[in-house]
Design a protein that fits this description.
about 100 residues; single chain
Length: about 100
Amino acid sequence: MRRLQMKNLDPEDPFSLTGHAVALSAEEAEEHLIEMTDTIIHEFTLLGWTPERILGMFNNPFYRMPHEILRSRGASFVQSRMAAVTGIDLTELVTN
């Protein structure tokens, strides 16, 4: 097995996250949003979170990405994705 070579740490090397804008068509952006939403729901379901707890995460501004999805797309979008991923009708659980 080959070992990775470590570079020397440079105190001037920034250790901060950087983001880059990516140009997407409206269709590509929608596909990415659906995939991200489904992934969030799936991952937290695998962690044992209940549908109510996952919906609470989407409603909580502390969880920036899920909350922004709910804020920008609405409760019906989140509900439809939850139903698609979990197979459970969550109409009565989603609130704006």
